[in-house]
Amino acid sequence: MTVSETVPTSPGPAAGLAPIRVLCVDDHRLMREGIRRIVGLQSDMVVVAEASNGEEAVEQFLRHKPDVTLMDLHLPSVNGHEAIRAIRARQPDARIVVLTMYSGDEDVYRAIEAGVMAYLLKDAVPDELIHVIREVHAGRRVIPPEIEGVLEARAMQPSLTFREFQVLQLLATGKRNKEIASALGISGDTASAHIKNIFQKFNVHDRTAALAEAIRRGIIHIG
User: Fold this and answer.
1) How many helical (H) and strand (E) elements, i.e. helices and strands, does the chain have?
2) Is the same domain home to 88 and 138?
3) Which pLDDT tens digit goes with each residue over 191-202?
4) Which of 30, 49, 210, 213 satisfies CB 3.0 to 4.6 Å to 64 for a cystine?
5) Domain interval for residue 32
6) 107 and 168 in one domain?
7) Taking the CB of residue 131, how many other CB atoms lie within 10 A of it?
């Protein structure tokens, strides 16, 4: 999403209706300012608060009780998935829109499972963002066709067990089989078996390919 595009303005809220109150959560100041500008051009909505990490997101949500929260997933401290769960644990009907660069099937699945009402990529045009905010505020779920496709693809793929996920995380740090076994308190043979299972589920034959697939699917993130 770029802020240089022409953003349509709304005719304004109906008489007596309060504007849609938006919380913007993103670790990039430029992105937050861009969203504030886009939302500010609409007379039926306003950004009431911003946050640059997941912990701030929860604090600002509880303080301002926004109508709609725009949530990035890649956040320092507490990540977006964790912030979503923390917010919804306190307010189950919170209306949250994921606005992110992450398009991996695991990222999408975890966000939908956590209860978000919309999942939008940052390359969306401004009028699409405005439309999604209004739809979510009205209580409607908005999942673009490309995101639906990602969810369908994930449903066709074998999932990792929790232990396999732990092993994969350690693989991502460069640990060898013996180090993984020691870290998890398992035998070297068991660690090797888990790694073999990961390779089979990802349809790959080495660690580098397994990590590349895990990153592509959003199961792990590097950096």
Assistant:
1) 10, 5
2) yes
3) 999 999 999 999
4) 49
5) 20-154
6) no
7) 16
